[in-house]
Amino acid sequence: MVLVAVSAALFGALAMFLLNPAPSMNSDEAIRTLVGTIIDEREAKNTAASQQISAAQTAEISSPDINPEILNPMIENFLMDDPKILQRVSIALQEQLRLDEVSEAKIALVSFESEIYDDPDHVVLGNPDGDVTLVEFFDYNCVFCRAAMPDVARLLAEDQNLRVIFKEYPILSEDSVNAARVAIAVSKTPGADYWAFHELLYTARGQISGETALATAQSMGMNRVELELAAMGADVTDIIQKSYILADGLKISGTPAFIIGDEIIPGAVGYERLRDSIANVRKCGSTVCNT
Question: Which of 69, 103, 238, 244 shows the greatest Cβ crowding within 10 Å of its Cβ?
């Protein structure tokens, strides 16, 4: 489907260029030259010089209309002769879309900065005054979150200047919601070891439910009845709702999702990626340093 879309875009660009072509534009050689120019311009879009066709180039294309019955077969023949052109255009398009997403994410991170970092209801571990903050959106029934948990644990153990924020984002099932409710209640219980509880839930077998969370908390010495009542409170509902609203604003639709500096990182990307991103934020203020 991507190639079809790219083909349509390429035909549209050619039509613009050839709206009033010179008589010589009826040659295969001229069409090849023109298409090659369009491809090169598309691949160099990240530079200011390639944003539009120069006035000189536009002025050259100013002769009477070309017959589409002549133009279309010529374009088709050209593309059939070198199908890799479409691959090159597709790669360039995907890269541009990726850059657009990165740009949009940076704007969203600035817009929701307070909700991300200053919410008094989120769980903070590690160094509360750390120079870099790692934020994780997670679901207790997410297998990828389970895989990422040891990476976060290692970062907490090794990096004494790292602040970690956990945001409950239960999106996979009603069991996930109920487990998140209990976890939030645990986080607000004086003296409770939230991290130990968090690790135990991720190492439990099978589907993680509210019952699983309550049994885990009880095994740690917490009052099951009090936790169950607290978990159903309106304040807990509000905390989960805030996570949904924030994730929607940041266009986060899956778990785990990490925020480090100026980047939203989806998926269980591994310890090295997270560690390097944190190091880069310390070095240059961004997860990717140019030098």
Answer: 244
Question: E strand or H helix at 148, and its extent?
Answer: helix 143-158
pTM above 0.85, yes or no: no
Residues 6+ apart with CB under 8 A from 181: 210, 213, 231, 232, 236, 240
Residue-range domains of the chain with CATH:
2-100 (no CATH), 113-284 (3.40.30.10)
Spatial separation of the C-alpha atoms in residues 106 and 110, rounded to whole Å: 6
Non-local (6+) Cβ contacts of 43 within 8 A are 88, 92
CA-wise closest residue to 255 among 246, 267, 244, 245: 267
What would the mean pLDDT of 197-208 be, rounded to a whole number? 95
* Average pLDDT of the residues in 88-111: 74
Q: Does residue 70 sit in helix, strand or coil?
A: helix
CB 255 within 8 A of CB 145: yes
Long-range CB pairs of 147-154 (<8 Å, 24+ gap) are 147/268, 148/256, 148/268, 148/269, 149/198, 149/199, 149/202, 150/271, 151/268, 151/270, 151/271, 151/274, 152/274, 153/199, 154/271
